[in-house]
Amino acid sequence: MGEVGSEARVRDLSNAPVRTVSARPSLRGRLANVWQRRELLGQLIVSDIRVKYKGSALGLFWSMLAPAMNLAIYYLVFSVFLKNGIPNFVIYLFSGLVVWNMFLNSVIGSTTVVIARAGLVKKVAFPREILALSTVGATAVYFLVQMAVLSLFLLILGHQPAWSYLPLLPVAVVTLYILTASVSILMSGVTVYMRDMAHLVEVLLQLTFWLTPVVYSYENTISPALASHGLSWLYFINPMTPLVMTFQRIFYGATNAISLTSGQVLHVLPQWSMAHYWTVNLILLGLVTAFYLVVEYLFGRLETNFESEL
Amino acid sequence: MVKTIEVIGVNKEFVIHHERHQSLKERLLHPGSGSSEKFHALENISFSVSPGETVGVLGHNGSGKSTLLKTICGVLAPTSGEIKLRGNLAALLELGAGFQPELSGRENVYLYGAMLGLKRREVAAIFDEIVDFSEIGKFIDTQVKFFSSGMYVRLAFAVAVNVDPDILVVDEVLAVGDERFQAKCMDRIVRFQQEGRTILLVTHNGDQVRQLCSRAIVLDHGSLVADGPTNESLKVFREHLHADEATPAETASGQIRITSVTTPSGSFDVRTGAGMHFDVGVESAQAYGGQFVMEIFSRRGELISRPDAQATPVHLKPGINAIGIDIAELPLLDGVYEMNIGLLDERGQNVLAWSERAATLQVGSDGRERGIVEIAPRVTQL
């Protein structure tokens, strides 16, 4: 029986595709490889989440505690103490924070992920970018939960989102995902060579946070000053800005509101047309996709010497 | 002829940092400094393996055999050259490397399966077999961090051998678990051979290579120095490369050589049950105390006997030494047997001199007993 089986196996093999391990897999080869191992990616995401909450009955609750805390504090500080006057500020805040949390937690988690899984990297064959991607994937699950909570807020507060802008959401989410994945993959590779990168990343992320209109309104604060010097573009170099603004446009709904404090009209969001939002988002999607390809290429260069650096 | 593994001109270089600047701060403070050096782990390796072949990979620590395996499995990318693989490959480089201690055995089986390239439902289909083979039983739902090390490797091995690989790459992992489990692993490997799967086996255990492999390759300092039938390769490995294993202080190898193995009659034909005498000539540059080793193998590569070397100390004088071996009654039956002769240092750890297949015994039997060893039982009716 063994002999018959062995002949059949040889026959099957002569038809089997040939896989090639070479010095520099092409970019297309790299992407195909990641796609081929999507099953592993899924498993890693699930195990990531499981490991995090193994042994804690409250599970997901803990992952929501930090964002809830942030939301509460920013609301208190900006709306109650500093009286920014924006009505339904909690919706404005939440729709920006959801985006920011996704980016922040993915990048922070990914910076050390290759080092943390060194044993795996040195012993098991799989595309190394999957490690960062699994962190991004796990964070994406929390992102979805936060989106659900945001929807609940809208319902409870009876706040109407801008329904006509809703088709922008999938584009913005995909753009956010690709951008987050690109930065995460790049950082996961760079940190192997420069271990203190994690500290720098934290500082840079904090800076980026305050340069993104999450807890304040750009239109209502620095926009006139920047515009008068012709420097508005500087603010929009940060790709998180248009993403956050798109989310705010969709969920906060209005561009103008009556201030709670002064009773005058507040410009909360830029006075862009829907076409403008579409243009900005589609251009950004193109840019982050190109960036992702560059990152894949760079990561391919970085990973060749992981073995002796880990 | 179809090849399952084709290694074509593979080179692998590592950059070795003498002074590691593993942080941004250090790199900024010392720009350009931090000397590094290229290290050739593999140099222009080429060979191919046909379906159903079991090939042993021999080499000392640092010879590049692990690097070669990792390159074949795709854990490492070669610096130049390429490797072509047909069919799916399962690698046992380090058992349980992919396990997540926090997860249960069940969850880890699925995770490990995914690492080996399986879909969830494919793992589900063989899940029971895996649990059976691993003998983990009801502990399958326990977190892996509470497993004993034996359970850990048993589960990993069970997953790897149950995934139906066309190519199995095994690195020094057959020494896991208790003896019974080891035997089970060996059985599985033999079954894999019969099923026409390709196996690449790295081991320090010469007996295992002899038993399982029809062919072996030998690596030395990153180069392929031998590729041929197991016997030939083992000869190269043991006779020419053992020098590396000894630490410099006690290196007497090269100074000690087995020059001849003869019998008084000049013939190695012998009858079962007869006595035998061998004369071994050993040339030594200086006085040296060591242990004498003799191994007898069947033609199929099974070790028949390796007497305790500690019981046979020898004291070499400078010059030619004559050593006699006497076997009072040779219990071997009809057949051809290979004999290896060697000298170990006093602690029995390092090989000083080795002669692989120093002699080939042609044994003829007068009786009608069959097999390898003459037991000559006396049967009486009580």
CATH class category label of the largest domain in chain B: Alpha Beta
Oligomer: heterodimer
Biggest contact: A-B, 50 and 55 residues
Q: pLDDT below 50 for ≥5 consecutive residues: which ranges of chain A? A: none
Strand content of chain B: 35-45%
Strand elements of chain A, count: 3
- The rounded Rg of chain B comes to 25 Å
Structural class of chain A: mainly alpha
Number of helices of chain A: 15
Number of domains of chain B: 2
**What is the percentage of strand-forming residues of chain A?**
under 5%
Distance between the termini of chain B: 62 Å
- Strand arrangement across the biggest beta sheet of chain A: 2-3
**Shape verdict of chain A:** elongated
* CATH level-3 fold name of the largest domain in chain B: Rossmann fold
The CATH architecture classification of the largest domain in chain B is: 3-Layer(aba) Sandwich
Task: Write up what this structure looks like.
- The complex is a heterodimer of chains A (310) and B (382).
- Chain A has 310 residues and is mostly helical.
- Chain A is built from 15 helices and three strands.
- In chain A, strands 2-3 form a two-stranded antiparallel ribbon.
- In chain A, strand 2 (256-258) and strand 3 form a beta hairpin.
- The termini of chain A are far apart.
- With 382 residues, chain B is α/β, with parallel strands linked by helices.
- Chain B has two domains: 5-235, 3-Layer(aba) Sandwich (Rossmann fold); 246-364, Coagulation Factor XIII, Chain A, domain 1 (Distorted Sandwich).
- Chain B has helices at residues 24-29, 65-73, 105-115, 120-134, 149-162, 179-194, 206-212, 230-240; strands at residues 5-17, 36-49, 54-58, 80-86, 89-92, 167-171, 198-202, 215-220, 223-229, 256-262, 269-271, 276-284, 288-298, 303-305, 313-316, 319-327, 335-345, 351-364.
- In chain B, the strands form four sheets. Chain B has a six-stranded mixed β-sheet, with helices on both faces. In chain B, strands 11, 13, 14, 15, 17 and 18 form a six-stranded mixed β-sheet that branches. In chain B, strands 2-1-4 form a three-stranded antiparallel β-sheet, covered by helices on one side.
- In chain B, helix 6 (179-194) links the parallel strand 6 (167-171) and strand 7.
- Chain B is globular and about 70 Å long.
- Residues 244-251 of chain B have low confidence and may be disordered.
- At the A-B interface, helix 1, strand 1, helix 3, helix 7 and helix 15 of A face strand 1, helix 1, helix 2, strand 4 and helix 3 of B.
